[in-house]
Amino acid sequence: MIAERWITLLTLAGFLAIPLWALAVDEPFTITLATRAAILALAAVGLNIALGIGGMVSLGHAAFFGLGGYAMGILAFHAQSFQPLDLGLFTIEGTKSMPVIWLTAIAVSALAAWLIGLLSLRTTGVYFIMITLAFGQMFFYFAISWGTYGGEDGLSIYVRNSFPGLNTLVPIQFFAICFVALCAALFFQWRLRASPFGLALNAARQSEARVATVGLSPKRLKLLAFVISGAITGLAGALFADLNRFVSPTMFSWQLSGELIILIIIGGVGRLAGPVIGAALFVALEHWLGGLTDFWHVWLGLILLLIVLFARGGIVGLLTGKAGPHV
Amino acid sequence: MSEPILSTRGLSKSFGALKAASDITLDLKPGEIHAVIGPNGAGKSTLIGLISGTLAPDDGQVALAGQDVTSLGPEDRAKAGLGRTFQISALAMEDTVLENALLGAVGATRQARRLFSPVQRDTALTERAMTALTRVGLDKVKDTRCAELSHGQRRQLEVAVALTLAPKAFVMDEPMAGLGAEGSKTMTGFLDTLRAEAPILLVEHDMDAVFALADRVSVMVYGKLIATGTVDEIRASRDVQDAYLGSDA
Question: Could you report how far apart the first and last alpha carbons of chain A are, in Å?
Answer without folding.
Answer: 24
